[in-house]
Amino acid sequence: MTNLFFNPVKVFSGRGCVGEYPWKSHGKKCMIVCGSHSARLCGALDDVRDALTAQNIKFIIFDRVEQNPTVETCKEAGDIAREDKVDFIIGIGGGSPLDAAKAAAYFAPNPHLTVETLYDGECKSDPLPVIAIPTTAGTGSEVTQYSVLTCRRIENKKTLKTPKIFPVAALLDAEYTVTLPQSITNATAVDALCHAVEGYLSKGANPVSDALAEKAMFYVGRSLRSLIEGRLDFALRERLLLGSMLAGMVISVTGTCFVHSFGYPFTYFEGLSHGEANACFLPDFAEYTARVAEDKVMRVYRLCGVKTHEEFRSLIERAVPCDWKFDRDAVMKYSRIGGGGGSVNKGLYEPTADDIYNMYKKYII
Length: 365
Description:
With 365 residues, the protein is α/β, with parallel strands linked by helices. It folds into 2 domains: 10-176, Rossmann fold (3-Layer(aba) Sandwich), CATH 3.40.50; 182-361, Up-down Bundle (Dehydroquinate synthase-like, alpha domain), CATH 1.20.1090. The chain is built from 15 helices and 8 strands. The protein has helices at residues 17-20, 38-41, 44-54, 71-83, 95-107, 182-200, 207-228, 234-254, 258-270, 274-279, 282-289, 294-304, 309-319, 328-339, 353-361; strands at 10-13, 29-33, 58-62, 88-93, 130-134, 146-151, 156-161, 169-172. Helix 6 packs antiparallel against helix 7 (207-228). The protein is globular and about 55 Å long. The chain starts with 9 loop residues before the first strand and ends with a helix.
């Protein structure tokens, strides 16, 4: 018997959905987890506070989530949530705050867990409920069971994966993406496209995930050209947000492949955003996979509005220029770390050591 699909997240969308949501159904006190800037700038934090106040729900704010949050930061947030006896957690932001919110919810009722035992310790009590409010169209974290955190002891990112941290609800309001700079809008869109493409070309793909991936690629891939040409209106932002959510549903089934594994060291050591790092390897992923699944890769291209490897690479590089160069020894280190990632061989094509070197070498000074 095959389990084709499971995703328990209730998804709501539309302008004003935060104010309409029945927050009091989750308890009398909550913690809001966000970064120090974007949640305020886009208006989401104010809307959440107003909605909670209107429903007589007390709240505390943890706004120290950094880009690429560490396990230590999430442990701190979880400890505070436990000490303040909150009933649920609201994550506001891009992938970093949403992933941090899920990890904090995991830590909060499990004081025996430490920074060192998060990934292999027993979860004795169920995590607190999480409501996710994405403010970027890229991560899909609002509908996944993953929390990707920076793990200092391995000098890389590592994923907490458990169905216990699926958010109970996701609230999608594209109004919160309006204040994003063009560069971030582009990079997060490429991240969303990565999720759809990697899931579609994964060994774990199935007819349900493929259907979701095709719709996500159509929404996001076709939108990239508009972004490149500067045609960014509210309707396009809504398409991107929906496409990102659909792509998140895809990887909740399939996981990601080597694009993510290869990009993590660029993020950890060089400070590239997640979308920028993924852009470095997405065209390669498609081109290499065509060696074993050409028809399916050609389908990816058609959905994105292009016809060839060269056109697809140009589309990604015009959206997110991949012109970074790093020291040779550093790149060799990154290739060892990225090449050893757990998702490297989850795609339909399994890269060889030479393949991995060839994909990294173009970033050597």
